[in-house]
Amino acid sequence: MVADTRTEHGLSVDGATVRYADGRRRSPHPAAVDAVTFTVARGEVVGLLGPSGCGKSTLLRAIAGLEPLVSGTVRWAGDDLASVPPHRRSFGLVFQDGQLFVHRSVAENIAYGLRVQRVPRAEREARVTALLELVGLPGAAERSVTELSGGERQRVALARSLAPQPRLLLLDEPLSALDRALRDRLADDLAAMLRGTGTTAILVTHDETEARTVADRVIRMEQGRLVTWDAPEDAS
Q1: Is 110 helix (H, G, I), strand (E, B) or coil?
Q2: Per residue in 112-122, pLDDT tens?
Q3: Domains and CATH numbers, the chain
């Protein structure tokens, strides 16, 4: 009997296709994402690499449930997520600008998802303290996010996304707004954070050095399609 390989992976994307009906796709190819198929094993970090406009961020949004598929499937551990709304997928998202709550402190930002999950206060506070240590911001709990540098804000955004322990973390160009030196340093830190927490993740980027630094393997997109990819380590 042949095993169902879908259940061996955390995420399975099979033939995913996204089309924009409003003409947002400015290319000869009508599909923003065109029949994309790949898997991400639990605990694996995959880099999704490609130029601006190639469809990588749209694919990430489709995995999150923020863009509808016209065909294909997104599954977690073999379960089709088509009927599962974004807030029930237990996926975390980090965007380029971090999207922090400017009226909340650093600790309140990080604890937000834990509050939604109704985690007890003592447990929330312990988790926030541990995450601030993890992202290199010990003692910053009471600071206003408006006082933080760009790199510090992205560290807080990462801590906030990790706090609820998402089963999949989706990172959409999280370092692209930073200067080169800071970006390189945070890429090393991000790789250590993801591996240290055993987080399953997809990193969208147009920077090959960043992708190779952070990810276990890299998939390349062009014009809505996957064109090259590293084979999983256990592939025969």
Answers
A1: helix
A2: 999 989 999 99
A3: 1-90+166-236 (3.40.50.300), 102-165 (no CATH)
